[in-house]
Amino acid sequence: MSYEAGLVPAFLIPDKPITRGDTMSRTADTWILAAQCPSRLGTVDVVTRFLKEQHCYITELNSFDDRLSGRFFIRAEFRPEVEGFGGEAFHDAFAPRAAEFAMEFELTPPGKRMGTVILVSKADHCLNDLLYRYRIGQLPLDIRAVISNHPDLESLAAWHGLPYYHCPITSETKPQQEAQVQEIIEETGAELVVLARYMQVLSPAMCERLAGRAINIHHSLLPGFKGAKPYHQAYEKGVKLVGATAHYINNDLDEGPIIAQGVEPVDHAHYPEDLVAKGRDIECLTLARAIGYHLERRVFLHAGRTVVLGN
Amino acid sequence: MSYEAGLVPAFLIPDKPITRGDTMSRTADTWILAAQCPSRLGTVDVVTRFLKEQHCYITELNSFDDRLSGRFFIRAEFRPEVEGFGGEAFHDAFAPRAAEFAMEFELTPPGKRMGTVILVSKADHCLNDLLYRYRIGQLPLDIRAVISNHPDLESLAAWHGLPYYHCPITSETKPQQEAQVQEIIEETGAELVVLARYMQVLSPAMCERLAGRAINIHHSLLPGFKGAKPYHQAYEKGVKLVGATAHYINNDLDEGPIIAQGVEPVDHAHYPEDLVAKGRDIECLTLARAIGYHLERRVFLHAGRTVVLGN
Amino acid sequence: MSYEAGLVPAFLIPDKPITRGDTMSRTADTWILAAQCPSRLGTVDVVTRFLKEQHCYITELNSFDDRLSGRFFIRAEFRPEVEGFGGEAFHDAFAPRAAEFAMEFELTPPGKRMGTVILVSKADHCLNDLLYRYRIGQLPLDIRAVISNHPDLESLAAWHGLPYYHCPITSETKPQQEAQVQEIIEETGAELVVLARYMQVLSPAMCERLAGRAINIHHSLLPGFKGAKPYHQAYEKGVKLVGATAHYINNDLDEGPIIAQGVEPVDHAHYPEDLVAKGRDIECLTLARAIGYHLERRVFLHAGRTVVLGN
Amino acid sequence: MSYEAGLVPAFLIPDKPITRGDTMSRTADTWILAAQCPSRLGTVDVVTRFLKEQHCYITELNSFDDRLSGRFFIRAEFRPEVEGFGGEAFHDAFAPRAAEFAMEFELTPPGKRMGTVILVSKADHCLNDLLYRYRIGQLPLDIRAVISNHPDLESLAAWHGLPYYHCPITSETKPQQEAQVQEIIEETGAELVVLARYMQVLSPAMCERLAGRAINIHHSLLPGFKGAKPYHQAYEKGVKLVGATAHYINNDLDEGPIIAQGVEPVDHAHYPEDLVAKGRDIECLTLARAIGYHLERRVFLHAGRTVVLGN
Hints:
Four copies of one chain form a homotetramer.
Chain A: E1 31-38, H1 43-53, E2 56-66, E3 71-80, H2 87-100, E4 104-108, E5 114-120, H3 125-135, E6 141-148, H4 154-159, E7 164-166, H5 174-187, E8 192-195, H6 204-209, E9 214-218, H7 230-237, E10 241-248, E11 258-265, H8 272-295, E12 299-302, E13 305-308
Parallel strand pairs in A: 5-6, 5-8, 6-7, 8-9
Antiparallel strand pairs in A: 1-3, 1-4, 2-3, 9-10, 10-11, 12-13
Helix pairs in contact in A: 3-8, 7-8
Active site (chains A, B, C, D): 254
GO biological process, one term (chains A, B, C, D): 'de novo' IMP biosynthetic process
Keywords (chains A, B, C, D): Hydrolase, One-carbon metabolism, Purine biosynthesis
């Protein structure tokens, strides 16, 4: 099958106006190639030429060159136009070309649901929101476990058919608890860890192990009110906006690379408890947005910042 | 003239549907009474009963009790329904009642334009925006002078028919320059001082003299990136939102009570110069909004925070 | 108990700075008085004087006079400062004074949870969101039943311990089905009916019966794309924003008085299915916001518009 | 000059952390290639391979395939890495390759300022805003004339050193007036026409001549309140949001392809005049944003919709 004859394949041409009620999925059959490397002439071409050779039709392409750090980022959504396209063969054939550019890349097949473990404490608003999006298929997660240092949210997880691990923690048992959590992550083969208001500071070693694959939601705009009770601080300061920040964790819990931020107006009549309530909505939305970007391989990490392509 | 007979005055009843094209001003003939005092039973009644006795019809009323600080705030827009209403007589008659509640109050007649001095440096976006709103009457300012430590913006002021004072400043001449600025403020009788990107840190003495009547625009959300070049800091941190904060100045230039905040989404592709450009719009809008609240006597200062009623 | 001696009651004065971690509820012990009447001198005073006489401390007060329609609206949150305050006695004592102003009023005690029936179809995002807010007490609802023309959402209701009524509907059985729904509403004593994506056009008679106490969420900004599949229309038009509108129902299902609206940016890459997904979040938030305003008696209906005080 | 040796050119590697205060322009030396054609395998490759061959380094690349209409859109910002790069030679060499894909393309050199004519009536808020952005270089416009059917805004244009043409119009003289306007557009060689609150409906012939290069600002969200006085309609409807729409004109003045939309919350206390004031800010921002996208060649027109890449 080839388009060299200049023909547009029939399925690309709607033979009638869009019938309302039909929804043609934009991504149901598309693969994603995400890559980054040092800036250098030919970085785009090495990707796009290869896709062409492999008879892959690019449906969405975004690249960005960060002149300030000399780093190049690219993300392509594409649809193979050949029978028997195989991800492994593609990967192996592309690897040597990528190597010439010191390019790191990742290939993601359509319909991939990412193995995920969710860490929570007692507050359930983010968990409730994520499980809803998971249940209706809006976020292509494959949730393997919900872990908490409290027993409270077990029935919520159970209703969604998810295993729940109660791993209590004290300052004394922290190393053992983290080992326990780490074991669950490894045994379930989770690629993503979501801290959905987990409220615990991870040890540097744990942060290190989860670098680039653990997303936290911080209940404040960063930089901003750090430490405990940011909504109380916000009230005392009389801010007119409150916000939330979703970020990859790093050693400094609330200081990792930012993926998404949300904000909402407030006023003097918002007591700390009202700010907390406002914050719940923003936290849910911002965390869900960040996870969506991560799952769609839109987020690139480099030099402590993220590049989010095509969001 | 009295409504005690139960009659609604004719002008309050539109005898036909709103004719499109008519605009009936909501505030052209309304006075404003703004007051605050310690929380105590009767604080509302002392205001509203007096207004009733004076045959003043309240068109908008907002009060707020801050339980956390034990402070009460009230703002009433009203329209006298009697011939010969006089602000001075009203003031004198109300003063002893207010005193019983340790109530501070301010009475503002309709159409009052507030005497204002604007301080600028070289950046003209906020000045340009304010002068436009001044010119079309959107902000009821009576601008008496534009003062700058640079000569650059003279022609902009001149085009609007405004006197421009070039008061250069160095670290050595700061006391003299501030005295000069203070003199202009006093001679023009300005009640309001707007720091429209003035870029100079005022001395504690100057801050003290202008307490509660000088509004600054800070090019960052507060708390947030402090110090120089917040947009560069925002870029390095990879924030997904930038914002601006309008606040009353206090001794710590960028830390005064917040009046208004604005925000706009950005992404990795916004270099510092792009963030600066984004920031210009937010700064203009946020400063104009804060000045509007101040002119309408919506802003109350207490304990380092503002209460903004009915915005 | 009286404050006439000029003393501020001790509990109003925090004797120490706010301890972070404490949350002093702003409304846990406050009553709400909401009223409207024709514009006329004394409308505020009749309310505030009575509250003073009854030893009620007003913690938040908002009034608005709509000059264009000659109508006055007022809402007061207050805290009785006497032992043995009773709503019924208050009501009876205030009624004759209100009558002099042709004033309609409603008194709501603290902690009141409003009897509510929720109508749904198959889509569960709004229901899921409302049940969450109900469960954590963010919305003081007393949900008495979930009614649907489909059986799909029964387990969701069941998990929250709520009765679920499956009332199928066809064009032939519409009158009977509406009678059935009406009966449930009446038997449960529900004061509020929420159409959380119910997808059925109510008959004029049903609309009439539910006037002012049934809130619908429309998946578009109004006015805007009416009729079926507004997200498909939005896609074809290439809009850069999508929104939702929460409103009281009236005879024209999607045209009732607007209570709240929400909006989110989109772009060309949002296919109809993506717009639907974006819409889910906005619909949830906008509906929850509108219900919150209604429960807090902030919404006043007059002449086909709403006035929302102090939101 | 070649990077085939695998070396990253020195200027791409910052040898020190970004010095705050430096701003490295992201686009000062970049060309733009914008193209569209029917969807077909190889559409990306034909562009990116050519850029590689021409030693052009791509700094930002975005492509989008609209599956629903079978159309492909691409935009590349690139920096030639060779001496003596010439746009004309590039164009001539690329044309035959583009032709194979029925690809329309446009090449824009760095620093290009687009010849522009602005049409206004009496309202000056958008003009004032655009002239400010023009003056500080934020919008790379080369404004050749301001045309109005009223004399009022001459001094504003004059202060910016711009020729002002007063072309009055009546229903009788409309054809002659449009001919006059058209003549000015042609004589000045303007590529872009901005209707900055021009308030006149252009004739179909005029719309036809200006297709794809005339941007209008409509003072409402579209679809929405059409016809005269949308802010009055918005007030009567009691909307909680007002907005503005910037779009290319077509035969139906307020119905052309949407480029950008803005929105702001309002409430019952916003009388029509207040909505007009709110609208001014949104109109300015939305129009400026749309013009910016157009100047940066981000906007593609197809089938009555726009695709806006990388905004």
